[in-house]
Structures are given as structure tokens and as C-alpha cells.
């Protein structure tokens, strides 16, 4: 009996102190859920989240499942919503799978933001992008044309004798990659009739090995017809660069696309990769936490609002974007980005 | 004499290897018609080199399958082996390929031994054991490495990727060659064949896969055989991981895990049975070649990427069906013999 009483007392003290402690935490709790934890890309994003937590005085942190699957991510968001955080910022593996839990979160007054998901905005408050997706899609095509011009080869090509290019995407179902690829294709067809996509996009760009093998096969198949490769996933250009290096075709084939600066720098130096672009995930983490904080403070999100260090935002539907495309035209430019 | 000749002849027709060669010949014929570049040595050398990883681990998987087991943890084993190798050679800047090559093998063997011991002593189905160890190994690696990628290896490691057994020049003046890694693959295929066919341990592996209880009663040391099988798989995963790191010049903790099914498919396509006791090194070699040709051929045929998966899936189902049909025929034949 005495033991039970002591036990009860202890428990109630614990509960009480926990309530006190929780009550003392007046700062907002902002949870950022990424596709998969523990990979360099999202570790970089976490730096931005931590920076923003410090700058804006909020309790912001990053979590993510161990595999990039939709199910564990949905589970994770559900747990956070049940726990009653103030905002969830998600980089979705599958935006459709998340929409029920997003709806539930918003019913409870939780702010819901996403990143890298500008097409599935029904169930969320805002999607935050650190690039202008249309420009991001067009830029590699312009880079190819510029490289052709620099090599003095531009006049060799015409609509009847086009320079062929191929695109590598992460998978045929990644909406953003395919949006960029569509934009690039449209841009090329409309403005550069001497460029031609010689075969439909290949889903290899999340793997160096697959991209390398695919580009080797493409070189065999198309020979001189193949002038350029655009990789939309960050490993596509690396794999393509290895293939062209193996064939000694660094000067014949132009490789451009999305790539992580520290990874692509050696290839930019040898000329196997000719041009690369990306955004800094740190900016994305920072921007999401900032927008969440503004919304929790009751500020209205309006066109032209300034995100500290990232410039004014533009708004299109439910998509907030700042344009922070990082260009890597040389190895030095890539190294200067520092991630 | 004549009769005997006919007997051998008939038996060849019943072998998986024969069907595989036939399919490969027919496919090659059509692919060459569509794109004459298919039948160039350059294309074949590229094709073989791109599939060395798959080819080597499929040999290991074959041995496990013959013994009546299965191993799906080899991707994690290979990843850990190559990751530790990458860490060591880039941290201490070890500019020696031989040392780099020797690091992953004992790691693979050690992890394989863990599987072997667990499979033998727990008596839980090896699928369960190896799925668990896959997760444990991979989880540890992700936790300890933080998923960091490794690149920028010492020059000798980079240069070794370009070593060729011999090189040729194509009509346009470009150089191409027979990569040293293809020799690794062929060498290991021959080793596996010799072990399975001529060494006592090889015959014992077939025996425990064919009928475990009979093998046990015959006095075979099951533990030693199983330990050998899983260690062999581990060693091959280690060598394959070295080749993989060489070819990609980058080590990512998450690039291999998830490819288990490709390897199982290649082994089963090559005639290995998931029920144990059947399969050969040549068959698995041809199985990997067939998968490689199909992938290569789809790009050469200029088929849209949407079709790649469909056709791969269809071919694996087809191969499994042929296998099952052959088994049925065999059972029927045996039934007839008994009836006689």
C-alpha cells in the first residue's frame, strides 16, 4: 500500500513537471520531414533548418524515414500531427499518399508546407521552392546551345541535320523531373529547331551505374547523332560523364544537368561535365521554417515578401518561390558553393 | 556407340543452358537486323563490363540457392565492404590497388559467416534471416556513415578502372577494350564451376540442397557446408563491391541495396532452383548475359523506357514457366522409369 502511494506520488510529480516543462516551451514547434534521413542532401537541408531555428527563435528540427518510401513518411507525419506540433514542413516521397494526413493536420490548425512538390498543392498551405522551375528546365538547353556556339559547331546543325540530345530523369514518375524535362523539350522545339530529342527520356538518373550503362548504349546506338545529355537527377550527369570519359568523347558530347557541387567538381575540371546547376537544400530548409514562422505569427504571405538572405518571394497559386539557382560553369564555381 | 551419341544429344536439349543459348542467339539475330551495331565487339565489351557486379554476385547466389538456401543480404554486405574499403583508402590515401582489392574480401566473408551461423543454428528460413541481417547491416552502415558519399580516390584506384586485357580500335578511330573486370567475372565463374563440379564440397552442396535429411544421415557436416556457402557468397559480394566501386568511382551507401531481385532473377533465369539442388555456373553466366542483352537491346531498338520493365518482367516469368515445365517433364520421366 505504501509502495503504491509512493509510486503514485512519483508518477504525478513526473507528469506535473512534464506539463510545467511543456508549458514553459512557448516557442513554436516546427517539424521538417524529409524523404529520407541520413543522406548528404538532406543533411545539408538540416543545416538550413537549424540556422533558421537559431535566427528566428523557434524549435525547428528535421526528421525523416530510413528509406525513401511513402509509407514510413506518412506514418511519421501522422505521429507529429497527433503530437500536435505547430507546423509540419514535408519533402514528400508521394504527395498523394500524404494528402489525407495533411487534411487532418490543417483541420487541427497545423501549418502544412511542402518542398519539391509544386503540383500537388490541394491539401497544403504552401509549397516552397528555391528555384524558378520553368527557368530551371530551360537553362540546360540554353547551356547546350552556348557550348555548341563556343565550339563553333552551331552552323553545322539545322532542322534537317539536327544535333541530338537525350534526357535522364530519376524515374518516369517523379513529377518535378518530368516537368523540367517537358519544359526543356518544349523550349528546344520552339526556339532551337536544330536540336532534337533522339530518344524518349530514360529513368536512370538516380544511379551512377545505370546512367553510365545507358549512356554507353546510347553512344553505341546513335554514334555521332548524340551530341548532348541532360541529367535531371543529380547522378545522371556523373554517370554520363563516366561513359564519355571511357569513350574519350569529352569534347564530342556535351553533358549538362543537375549535380551536387562537390561531386561534380572533378568532372567539370576534366570537361566530362560541361555545365551543372542546382539549388542549395540549405536555402530550402531555411525558407520553409521562415514561412512557417510567419504564418504562425499570423503574418500574411504576399508577393514580394522578403526571406532574409534569399530575396523577395513570388507567388503562383500555392507555390512560393525565390529564385536561387546555383550555376556551376566551372569546377571553381562548384567548389565555392561548399556542399 | 551410335546409341550413346544420341543419348547425350537428347540430354543437351533438356538443359537450361541450351535454351538460354538458343534464346540469346535468336535475340542477337533480331537485334543485329534492327541495329547492326549490336554485334560489334565494342558493344559486347561494354555490355559485359556494365554487368560485372550483377554477374559476380549471381554466382554467389547460385551456390546459396543450390544448397537449398537463399541470401538477400549480399547487397548490404557488398555496400559495407566497399564503404570500409573506400574509407580506408581515401583516409590514409593508400595508393595501391592490390591492398584496396584485398580489404573488402575478408569483410564479406565475415558478414557471410554471420549469416551462415544464424541460418544453421536458428533453423529459421534463410529468407527471414537474411532479410533481417540485410536491415541490421544496412542500418548500422547508414547510422555510422551518415549516408555520406565517398569519391576522390587515389590515382591508382582511378587508373585501374581503365586497365584492359587488350584493346582494339573501332572504325572511327576510337579505342575500346576488354576490361580487366570482365576477366574477374570469367575467372570467378570458372572457379565456381570447378568448386561445384569437381571439389567434394561442391558435390556436398548439391547433396544438401537436393535432400537435406539424406545428406545429414549420410554423415555430412551440414554446418561446415552452410558456413562455406554463405562465406563464399560474402567473398564474392566483397569482390563485386570492389569492381562496383572501381566502375563508378563513387561509393554511395544506398546504391546497391534494392537490387537483390535483379540478382535472384538472373540466377533463376540461369536454371538455379529456389528449391535447391539445381543450377550451374554456365547457366547463371548465360542468365546474366540474357538480362544484359535485353536491357542493351531495348535501347538499341530505340524502345521507349516505359517498355523496359514490362519486357524484363515478362521474360523472367517466361523463364520461370519453362523451368517449371521442365521439372514437370522430368518428374514424369522419372515416374515412367519407376513404373517400368
Describe this structure in words.
The complex is a heterodimer of chains A (339) and B (340). In chain A, helix 2 (40-56) runs parallel beside helix 10, helix 3 (70-83) runs parallel beside helix 4 and helix 7 crosses helix 8 (236-246). In chain A, helix 9 (261-270) links the parallel strand 9 (254-258) and strand 10 (275-278). Chain A is built from eleven helices and 15 strands. Chain A has helices at 2-24, 40-56, 70-83, 95-107, 133-150, 175-191, 208-222, 236-246, 261-270, 281-296, 331-337; strands at 29-33, 59-63, 87-90, 111-115, 126-129, 163-168, 195-197, 226-231, 254-258, 275-278, 306-307, 311-312, 314-316, 319-321, 326-328. The mean pLDDT of chain A is 89. The relative contact order of chain A is 0.13. In chain A, strands 2-1-3-4-5-14-13 form a seven-stranded mixed β-sheet, sandwiched between helices. Chain A has 339 residues and is an alpha/beta fold. In chain A, 47% of the residues lie in helices and 18% in strands. Chain B has 340 residues and is mainly alpha-helical. Chain B has one domain (18-334): ABC transporter involved in vitamin B12 uptake, BtuC (Orthogonal Bundle). Helix content of chain B is 74%, strand content 3%. Chain B is built from 16 helices and two strands. Chain B has helices spanning 2-13, 16-34, 41-50, 52-66, 74-91, 97-102, 104-122, 126-145, 155-160, 180-198, 200-210, 212-217, 222-248, 260-269, 281-300, 306-339; strands spanning 164-169, 175-179. Chain B has a two-stranded antiparallel ribbon. In chain B, strand 1 and strand 2 form a beta hairpin. In chain B, helix 5 (74-91) packs antiparallel against helix 7, helix 7 (104-122) packs antiparallel against helix 13 (222-248) and helix 11 (200-210) crosses helix 13 (222-248). The longest helix of chain B has 34 residues, at 306-339. Mean pLDDT of chain B is 87; it is low at 1-6.
